[in-house]
């Protein structure tokens, strides 16, 4: 089931929860959910499509149906208010409360998880297995990664994937990927996770020379913003990322593995007394 702590939009969480529940119980429907919650089924459709909101009085029943514990229930209710508010100050306060609720579950990654995040090759190999018919030659698959990895690295990556339940034998000497998801969850403080981000950003840098422009998209922009808008900016980034993944999952003939890096960071200290009026035009670096 989806983890509510991983979401910054309560309607996306409920939609994903509904889809996963329907897989386990085919009788689950909007009508059934409407009977359980007292919400009109037609309105539930609009809520899941982010065209409307639930009434706050219905939150307790959704919390109960989704089986959320006290902390996740509080996160869900805070997320509801976060998604509905328009006031910048309130938005910022709710965002940092969400982060606090997430950080309560800081955990230590297991050794296989540390190894998984310690190398970009594990995630890339798993993705390649998922779109390849004959997966019996792991060393061969490793050579098809870009950049290619050695036979030993490919076997090590496969071993980690097996330990984490991310691949299983297909019965013909090859491998199938599973629906198992590996996530850092909450606010994991791990040098391995930072290393994973660092390695994938290095690959993005190398891609400038390794790949032709038509095979990639690398762009940058420098802009100014009110620091109080940061929560909303992060929310928009997360919405973009989720939307892109949903689009990619619809592909019926995926034939290549890609990586997407998103990095936003300050380039100056906060100005104590900023000038008012229109901000200066942003500086863009187009796709090259």
Automatic annotation (TrEMBL):
Domain DUF4423: 104-267
Domain of life of the source: Bacteria
Membrane-crossing residue ranges in chain numbering: none
Annotated region (Disordered), positions in chain: 269-288
Pfam family, one: DUF4423
Name of the protein in its database record: DUF4423 domain-containing protein
Natural source organism: Fibrobacter succinogenes (strain ATCC 19169 / S85)
